[in-house]
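Example with several molecule types.
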Amino acid sequence: MKKLIKNGTVYYKGAFVKKDILIIKDKISEIKDKITEPADEVIDTKGKYVFPGFVDIHCHLRDPGQTYKEDIITGTKTAAKGGYTTVCAMPNTEPVVDNIATVEYIQRRAKDLGFCKVKVIGAITKQIDGKEISEMASMQEGGIVAVSDDGHCVQNGKLMVNCMKYAANFKIPVIIHAEDYNLAGKGQIHSGKIATQLGLSSIPSIAEEVIIARDIMLAESTKCRLHVAHVSSAKALELIKQAKDKGLPVTCEVTPHHLLLNEEACVHFDTNTKCKPPLREEKDRLALLEALKSGLIDCIATDHAPHADYEKELEFDKAPFGINGFEAAFASLYTHLVAKGHLTLERLLESMTAAPAKLLGMKAGVLENGSPADITIADLKGKIILTGETMLSKAKNTPWLGKPLQGKIVLTICDGRITYKA
Amino acid sequence: MSQNFNFINRSVFDLDDYSPDEIMYILEAAKGMKEINLREYKKIPTLRGKTVCTLFIENSTRTRMSFELAASRLSADVVSFQESTSALSKGESLQDTVYTLNAMGIDLYVIRHSSPGSPQLVNKYSGKPVINGGDGRHAHPTQALLDIFSIWERIGSIKGLKITIVGDILNSRVVRSNLIGMKKLGASVTVCGPRTLMPGQMEEVYGCRVEYDLKTALKDADCVMGLRMQLERQTEGLFPSLEEYTKHYVLSKDTIKWAKKDALIMHPGPMNRGVEILPEIADSTQSIIIEQVANGVAVRMALLFLILGGKA
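Resulting structure tokens for the full complex:
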């Protein structure tokens, strides 16, 4: 089975060039100025852009156990619509991914029924309840790419030292959701002027920063590879910069919503803006954008966190935290950053493809001869509007609902198979 | 005031939705209502056939009674839904509760709820006007209106007044709504309390003055409002003891001297006598605390009348 992608503008070796791409089975066989070889299927991409398939190292597929929110089929279908060909699923499912059996369940189901590749992230602690180290080494044999208690945070410093020592022993990256529970309390949104105005309990930035500071120090002493998930504050970036300047094995990611929105988005009690860490101040958002440009932030990750409509249709302080990410990610970033000149398309693509893949040692995110045929084709002038009807995710909890966005994914190919077509 | 404002079917989430002229119009209307409350037969037929639901997901007997009296005096039918006797404690969502009540033909909801923003939700689910009877720490617009009415009735104007509010600012919805309303009408407001009970960026959000020292805060004040200090804040680690709080922030004969002579003394109730205010002040001739309660009924009557389109 041969597919030929013709006449597109291809993001190839860090530049946009006119190339044709020949796919044989699940691999890219050739990338050249002009390919005339006959193919079973010719895809004309005139006027379109051809990117490496997007890679998301942070998402929640909610399967097993919370399939009323999302499942592996709808989750990966949604990911494919967003241009993703590889996603990493967080372990806070029911049961928690703290054992090899659950790892294998997810992998098998994704392989049999999925619309993109799913890599599994195991739990740091059993039941993600911060009490005992999980069987990370066994899960590593089963194929996990990292460990994380995402959504939760190991509060006990002594246990965290041991988790990181143990992870370092097997060279497993540790991804942290940095949140000091006492400082965060029952907070609903960022401790800033909107929290003051709305009278909502709030989560100060220091709740995130003290844990990042602690875990950077632990990374230094344990030599553990540390990745900070969804960094949200300017101060947190300072801490990560110090760590990187020192040469410590520390990286971080940012979500599209933290790059695009600030606390003001919560002012009308829209529960689709409620997330952890909370949307912070404009100065934090600007610092995140600068850090993404400079490379201090390594990559973009969606933290795709679907919640059923009826869970979000509640009083603000009763609704769960989380934002639906896959479908709006590229278009929202393209519309509000690239099209407005705040970020180059090259940097956006790097941080959604090669950078996250490299970070967790995955063979993905680059178009080259012999690489997996993971390709995303976009119409940068194409418009989308996400609505309850058009979204593929089971959940509709995105702040971009009903808002016109530009930068439409028109075709996604994963391992040589078309997984989404607009 | 002869301007025609349209209040029909408008919700009252907070005072920021209302212009200064609209607020004054409500106060004028309340003045008329107050007169009805002084009659022997305290009832007019204007809202006959309308149904008001007091939806109290958080307990508050006095506010609920005030609203229910207001509605009754305008001849509206009143039904009351309270959490303790309701389905919400059985796990029904607010959305389902509102759908259920709405099916019974409610014309206006008054809601009291611990969650900020819940009045907006009730409005969204019901399509009916909603009066916010207090949503968490967010807003309590009818309390602010009655406070402003009480000052206005006594002094004649709000513009240029110096108003000082003392106490647990962090947990007070009364302060937030009052700041919006009082600023709109041209008062300069100072809030005072310990730093642990003061939300961040108050100056920026409300354009008020923030003081941590009572003496400085009370200087030249025309009105002084005390707020209820709750013992549970002590267990939350926000201050060490009521005794220590009282030492620094109580409104007493001695401390009220720092304000203007004859400054009005106010309190939204319920009072903790001996904690934030001493009886010598609460019961003094300067105090208008009991008037505030009476005015509450009048202000709520005015709102119900204006929103439900009562005929004068």
